[in-house]
Write a structure and sequence with these properties.
The chain is mainly alpha-helical. The protein has eight helices and two strands. The protein has a two-stranded antiparallel ribbon with strand order 1-2. A hairpin with a 6-residue loop joins strand 1 and strand 2.
């Protein structure tokens, strides 16, 4: 697996734009929350209410989810009148779990890299290769540059 990490990307796949469109579907916390809410069939109004966003905002996300097969639309017959509900598909669940796993692995790699850089800097300080002022500057820059990896997960 480390050999894969060290390989260069030689060419962009032909379907790169489509790949990025699909990946973009779950790139916001709002979209992830909607997918989680749709584990059970829900109306767009109930999703909007729970999310604190407009129905139009929910509709925009639902349209995108449906385009890529992440969510399905269902007509529910009630005694009053038919209503539309949406729920996540098996493919949607699969995609959601794959994306969250990728992000978790990426965050863990970043945390490990931070720890490795920090140990290296500690050794440089202990061995007298850098002075305390330089160490503090480097540590501050490292912490700032890698802050996302160090933030608590939501």
């Amino acid at each position: 697996s480390s050999s894969l990490v060290n390989q260069k990307v030689h060419e962009v796949p032909e379907n790169y734009d489509t790949m990025m469109d699909v990946a973009h579907v779950l790139t916001s916390s709002a979209k992830l929350k909607i997918i989680r809410l749709l584990e059970e069939p829900r109306t767009p109004e109930s999703v909007a209410s729970d999310m604190g966003i407009t129905r139009q905002g929910v509709d925009k996300h639902l349209k995108e989810f449906i385009k890529y097969g992440l969510v399905e639309k269902m007509w529910v017959l009630t005694s009053l009148k038919p209503r539309v509900e949406y729920k996540v598909t098996e493919m949607g669940r699969y995609f959601y779990h794959q994306m969250t796993e990728v992000m978790e692995n990426y965050r863990n790699r970043g945390k490990n890299a931070f720890e490795s850089y920090l140990k290296s800097m500690d050794l440089q300080l202990i061995n007298g290769e850098i002075n305390l002022e330089r160490y503090q500057e480097m540590r501050s820059a490292l912490t700032e540059n890698m802050a996302w990896f160090l933030e608590p997960e939501n």
